[in-house]
Write a structure and sequence with these properties.
By secondary structure, the chain is α+β, with helices and mostly antiparallel strands. The protein contains 7 helices and 13 strands. Keywords: Coiled coil.
Length: 329
């Protein structure tokens, strides 16, 4: 376990961000769009940290210095712990390659959500209950690695630098109010910029095994056409692909009737993406299995729905047997 021992550190208040240029380049200028975009991404990261951890910190910037291009961010607050925390988080997010850059598996996604919630609760508790808490660096890393917004913004930041060949490396240093170093300078070289860039904007899909959709427009012919219906969990119409081939085949071959007030209970896969500003949105819907078709008069369980129900009942029976065995031991 690696702890951030705040009572052992001198007061910190500034973050030095140094864009290093090629040794042959004697200028100290930087493309304004690139620099402003980088600054925007870092401010978004800082905003996300403050929002999630209930921090209240004002940020100011100072005039640039030469030697490539160096800028200083000053963090102001009555709470020194909060300043130390956000400076450490920003230093970590700028210098440490995230553990997860690609799509997460369903198991990892479930774990990451639990880890994230726990790490945030632990951090908030330490900040609120102690004047000089000892913070586990691993909690900070989990918080970073499981926050899609933070990962997207740091990806955007390094994507800008990766395209801007003038910057050969980036270094960050935490300073006190007299600009003396508090920690060792962290350096990220150009060849490592890509390690921070997300491989895909797609997130692992969510699977709702208890979805109900009121059918508005079924598709009654072959082809990759989208159905339309009202998904009960969102309360508004969605378009979705019918990927249950058995149900789709039955609808086309047997002319299954749909009328006003016809519903399907189903297993629904929700594909998700993250946009440029770190917002997660549902990108598409797919019905994987239709479990039941029903209206106010008739309810019909599908063969695949019956199979799914029996499998679930068997799983529950097995889990109950395991629990009883554990109690008897």
């Amino acid at each position: 376990m690696s702890l951030l021992l705040l009572d052992k550190l001198p007061p910190m208040s500034k973050l030095e961000i140094h864009y290093h240029f090629d040794n042959l380049d004697s200028t100290h200028t930087m493309d304004a769009f690139i620099r402003n975009r980088c600054e925007f991404e870092l401010l978004q990261i800082s905003h996300e940290f403050q929002k999630k951890l209930d921090l209240d910190i004002k940020i100011e910037t100072e005039a640039f210095e030469e030697g490539g291009l160096t800028e200083f961010w000053t963090f102001l607050s009555d709470n020194a712990v909060q300043i130390a925390l956000i400076l450490t988080l920003l230093s970590q997010v700028l210098s440490r390659v995230p553990l997860r850059k690609s799509r997460l598996s369903k198991k990892e996604l479930e774990l990451s959500v639990a880890e994230k919630e726990l790490s945030i609760l632990q951090l908030k508790k330490q900040i609120q209950e102690s004047e000089k808490p000892d913070i586990d660096i691993q909690d900070l890393n989990i918080f970073i690695d499981t926050n899609p917004k933070i990962l997207k913004h740091i990806s955007n930041f390094y994507n800008q630098l990766d395209k801007y060949l003038k910057v050969k490396e980036l270094s960050t240093t935490i300073l006190d109010d007299k600009k003396s170093k508090v920690n060792e300078t962290a350096i990220v070289k150009r060849e490592d910029f890509k390690k921070f860039i997300l491989e895909s904007d797609e997130l692992e899909p969510i699977v709702d095994e208890d979805a109900t959709i009121e059918i508005i427009s079924p598709v009654l012919k072959r082809g990759k056409y989208k159905w339309k219906g009202i998904y009960n969990k969102v309360g508004h119409p969605i378009e979705f692909f019918m990927k249950d081939k058995d149900f789709k085949g039955t609808v086309i071959a047997e002319g299954v009737a749909f009328k006003n007030g016809t519903f399907i209970d189903c297993i629904l896969e929700i594909s998700r993406k993250i946009n440029e500003i770190g917002e997660i949105f549902d990108s598409s819907y797919s019905v994987l299995t239709v479990l039941k078709k029903h209206d106010e008069n008739v309810s019909e369980e599908t063969p695949q729905g019956k199979k799914y129900r029996k499998e679930k009942e068997a799983e529950k029976a097995q889990m109950k047997l395991f629990d009883e065995n554990d109690k008897n031991e």
